[in-house]
Amino acid sequence: MKKRVVSLMLAAMMMVVAVGCGKGDKAGSAANGGGAAADASALGDDGKFAETHHITVEVYDRGNDGGSDPVNNKYTDYIKKGMLDKYNVEVEFVAVPRWTEVEQISNLLAANNAPDVCVTYDIATIETYGNMGGIVDMKDALETNKDILPNLWKHLGETNIYWDQHPDTKTIWDIEAVRENQNDVNTFIREDWLKKLGLEVPTTKEEFYNVLCAFRDNADKLLGADASKLIPYSISFDAGYRAKTLNYSFADPNMTDKEFYINSFDDRGFTIPGIKEGVKLLNKWYNEGLIWKDFALYGAGDKTEDDLIKAGYVGAFTHNWDYPFRDGENSIDTNIKKFGGEDAKFIAIDPFEDKNGTHTKWISGPVDRKIFFPSTNDDILASLLYLDWISTPENIEYLQIGDEGVTHEVGEGGEISIIAATGNDIQNSGMNIDYTITTNGLKLVDPALTEKSLAYSYAGIDPQLVGDADKIAKTDNRAAKSYHIGAIDAETGMGDPLNQKRDQILDQSIVAPVADFDKIFDQGMQEYLAAGGQAIIDERKAKWESIHGDKENLD
Amino acid sequence: MNKIKSDAPESRNPVSIYFKRYWQLYLLLALPMLYLLIFKYIPMIYIQIAFKKYSIVESIWKQKLAGNHGFQYFIQAFSDSDFRRALRNTLVLNLLDLAIGFPIPIIFALLLNELCFKRFKKVVQTIAYMPHFLSWVIIYGLALQLFTPSTGLVNMVINNLGGESVPFLNDPGHWIWTYIFLGAWQSFGWNSIVYLAAIAGINNELYEAASVDGAGRLSKIWHITLPGIRSTIVLLLIMQIGNILGGTFDRPFALRNNLVISWAEVLPTYIYSHGIKGLQFSLTTAVGFFQSVVGVIFLLLANTISRKLGERGIW
Hints:
By secondary structure, chain A is an alpha/beta fold. Helix content of chain A is 43%, strand content 12%.
């Protein structure tokens, strides 16, 4: 009898397992549907859906110390309420780790599990999935519903909406968020160390090198007992980005649009002529003990380097133009004062001159993240309405600056200055950039006020520091354009493997003995080109010539 | 109808008697069989991705055959220097693991077995098991704290003693040994359990008889314990040889960095970075298929050899 009971229970369990397996197919069949058509007539006279719709939206999770839950906090509540009131659409956020977003979104797409509204910085991922039929063509939905998407069209403009349109098929797989501020990277240096050693702010590579040597040689004076921990210049495993202005200063500032385009698959400019010289200089510095010895051992998103900077062991580094000012209470600028003394601070400098004597900074176009809908999205209209809502000036303003007295103050001249918030009011990303997915950079309803407030938009940071950094980041800019060439077949699936390879070659070249540098770099470059880099360059060149003829520069 | 009924009454058919008696056991067996079917056999249908041009939206049956009679991706893999390097690394690291990581648990089990104090033995055993429960990400974190050139504890001690930092993690030659050592450290305690169980099964009278004949400790180990666990050792050896091109993903993935990648990229990580991150599903299914075929060949080979040598083998 007992045996029989056990057997029956087992049989019941099997049923459960079998039923559980049956459910797994749901996502698969949705993918074949390819997304429902967006028909504005589904909206009632009040502009709302009659029945509550439900969409999921990707949001970056930055894993900040003391941050709030990225999918459930004051600001997500604001968005959820706004969407529900205006359109009767329920919004659910899906967190994707910021520093591994490309891998994560790939995994989600491959599993047919991606949010309805996706965001990525990596166009190659979109093109790859688009070629497999995994991405919705937004063109018709955007154009036929233009009159119910006024804010989206106004904010992005034709430039950003058509930025990535395919030149032949006219499909739009993704639209580009607006980069209000096109600043790229800056180099920062410890001003108090310069003063302590009686040094001038370096303005050339030569002077910068001398300053780094002085930091190294005076470690006892600067750090006392911790002298052995001093790092004159710190970079990360992503040396292409974290020494970008240095590397690019060896590129030709008069490079034609064509040459730039051909080499711009790699956004660290790995194949651009001259970059090798920059890496060679890094290699020399590394061997002279000027660069952090452990830089290659810590992966993406690791906070060790930030902690070393905050602890006051680092003399100079290159990073996002406003990096030391980000994160309010946890910013580098605030922390360095705790550990490195009251007068400790990083100032932006511009020491890497190019062959013309200018400081050309190769910045991106007015574009930022790419927004796309995976083919599992079965509610295109609601998703577009979400983009419209998140592009509405008032909503952007509230998300960016929050409540007066809590996340911002109004100064005497009317300028908005951001103040550090705590608990539920905290903004996980600077000015909630992760929620305002169509916007990167301060954008208030009043443009004049935006201009005035920019330097005040970092909680607890001296506006002068921010203003100076902004000015340097805007010196000698050269912005990328939309080349309207469309997807390059050879790039399919190569984004991540080639980026990884580039990082490996750069890191290995930097730590090589000086005598071996050329061998290791050249061998690595050959491997990079053979692994797909050359095919991409060739196809880009051929497509440029077929679309733009023998034009070297676009207007 | 009547005829059938009289000709084959249930009770006289030996098969039905058998099932009537043992059906509960078969029901018990059904669950694991179902598991195998759902998670091991049904997925094999998708091996055909290796021979087809994969599309994320098209049904697997409708996808077109890849070039070169379907072998396009196998050719592509073998002409890819990354793949050849990953293949070499997988072989080298797994062979080293076999040479160093395999005997350690056996030696450890033998040593534990010789300990007289029961309580001490238990404590040692428990401590040795612990690393098995740490994830590789945590172990890499520990390794960074210990072995980085400038802030690692071990290197700081070496520096203070007047030595140069040892590039445990950032030079491929050193990294391989760090990798092997950490692997052995993580798993030797856990892997010794099987051997301890086998040792416990050896008849005690054999030891007593040997003592009467004047055998010492070492000769008892050599002549009784080792032969007693030989079949277990062979079994595990065959299994590990069958896994010569496989191996775990998390260990090499967590321990690697850009400087040692030329020796740290193995097939499982290659499949991850090219297949899932690089979206080349067909290519990496081909690689995975190749891995499995080689694994099966090695398994059969090892099994045959062991049977030739008089051992039982796996089956």
